[in-house]
Amino acid sequence: MRTDSRDEIRFLLGDEVVSVRDAAPTTTILTWLRETARRTGTKEGCAEGDCGACTVLVGRVEDGRVVSEPVNGCIRFLASIDGLQLETVEDLGGAHPVQRAMVEHHGSQCGFCTPGFVMSLVALKRDNEAPSEAEIDRALAGNLCRCTGYAPIIAAAQAAAPEPDRTQADEAILRKLRALDDGRSLSIRRDGARWDSPRSVDELAALLLEFPDARLVAGATDVGLWATTLTRELPHLIYIGAIDALRRVEPVDEHVEIGAGVTYADVEPTFDGLYPDFARLIRRIGGAQVRSVGTLAGNVANGSPIGDGSPALIALGATLVLRKGGERRTLPVEEFFVAYGAQQRWPGEFIEAIRVPLPRATTRFAAAKIGKRFDQDISSVCVALRFDLVEGAILEPRLAFGGMDGVPRRAARAEAALAGRSFSEAAFRAAMLALDQDFSPIDDHRASASYRKRVARNLLLKFYRELAGEAATRLEPDRYAHAVA
Ligand SMILES: Cc1cc2nc3c(=O)[nH]c(=O)nc-3n(C[C@H](O)[C@H](O)[C@H](O)COP(=O)(O)OP(=O)(O)OC[C@H]3O[C@@H](n4cnc5c(N)ncnc54)[C@H](O)[C@@H]3O)c2cc1C
Ligand code: FES
Ligand code: FES
Hints:
- This protein is an alpha+beta fold and 485 residues long.
- It has helices spanning 29-36, 97-104, 114-127, 133-140, 151-160, 171-180, 201-210, 223-228, 264-274, 276-282, 288-291, 296-301, 309-315, 333-336, 412-418, 425-438, 449-467, 481-484; strands at residues 5-6, 9-13, 16-20, 55-62, 65-72, 85-87, 185-190, 193-197, 215-217, 236-239, 249-252, 255-259, 319-324, 327-332, 337-339, 342-343, 349-357, 363-370, 381-390, 393-402, 409-410.
- It has 3 domains: 5-89 and 171-239, Ubiquitin-like (UB roll); 97-164, [2Fe-2S]-binding domain (DNA polymerase, domain 1, Orthogonal Bundle); 363-484, CO dehydrogenase flavoprotein, C-terminal domain (Enolase-like, domain 1, 2-Layer Sandwich).
- The strands form 5 sheets. A 5-stranded mixed beta sheet has the order 1-7-8-10-9, with helices on one face. Strands 3-2-6-4-5 form a 5-stranded mixed beta sheet. Strands 11-12-17-13-14 form a 5-stranded antiparallel beta sheet.
- A hairpin with a 2-residue loop joins strand 7 and strand 8.
- The radius of gyration is 23 Å and the shape is globular.
């Protein structure tokens, strides 16, 4: 253990400081709650982030207040909440306005999903005292109920929203969280495994140089599943979420720079302003529990051909800032993906940030995702298109797809069919034809090859109609998947 680090995990459980010395690096919040703390209100359904039965709240100090985020306790490692607040259904005491509303509106039958729903609704309520039905829908997309049905739960959410919430205004929590932050890194070694939570980027760079085989963890929405569902050996985890400097979104020259620790929830408002279709895509990644911790950098780094972030980043011409020790290099996102399962990242190197070019007045951008379900589903096809519209002509088109090949990549022939043409349906129809030469997708359980090809073509036409303002109404919020297919 390094001299400036600590080997016990310290956090607030409700409003009590807890020190944990005996948890292994891959112990999840859920396992610790149920097996050690004996707080069995939090349930295990799927153990892979899909059902929300294990939803707990993790609170952190942000802009002088405590922000509570819903997370899936089943895939988040306990060590990652060092210095934070953990709240479970037990902390609500049974008479919380959300709990009362769930009873009054008959929002529970067998009750297995209920603690998870309650925690998601408490998080929503602290953020929004008058949520619309769409906002409630979005807050609950990561919670499944197989017996009650959702109407009573939505009614409970609406009834509870304006009621005062004691914890929300609790200054004492803020003071305790501030007192808990001793500025030290966490370094634990247990059961032959190791966990490090460095507090600075330099410390992270040095650690990764020393231990190039260690596995980085950000939101753990992929890595958590490797530990729980896939039972993979993870002998050394280095967590980047405790580094404040990596959680920044800031303009740098002609770009917006997104730190590797920035979560989907944190970056969504930035994209809402710059590229609204990118924000819409992000709102379709997992549920609120996944978006509150999952990162764009992690989405790129895991190299999946169906990660939803990569096509948009490639279309926008985004670059990665890669760092190894004290050296930095930049790499276009499209060059990061070498082949299925292979990325251009050297041992000891990590993604420090993603730079996304700011739009020019002439920039046009559109993106869409096709999945079998609207919420909580991985893409069958994901596509993004960016170009400049100058005096009626399409310039510098960049069209990128996920789900069409072993890596997310550009469609060179379709781009060529658009480049320099006047912005017209004819140009887009030519690109639709050319697209057939760009990809030979595979059949799998998500979609057949012919479906993928057809939907990819049709999405281009959709983009044309939307960008031309021809679509009578934008099919909000993106519930067009089956209509277009
Ligand atoms: C229920 C559920 C639903 C999901 N739905 C979607 C979806 O709809 N669309 C979608 O695209 N994804 C989805 N995902 C997958 C997941 O949310 C993303 O891939 C996520 O962005 C990964 O980010 P993370 O921060 O959680 O990464 P982690 O799980 O912490 O890490 C993922 C990988 O990236 C590496 N890594 C992390 N940070 C860095 C870094 N800075 N430098 C180098 N390597 C790094 C890790 O070592 C690991 O290999 C879902 C996951 C779950 C559990
Ligand atoms: S148990 Fe299903 S999301 Fe955690
Ligand atoms: S009340 Fe039974 S699963 Fe929701």
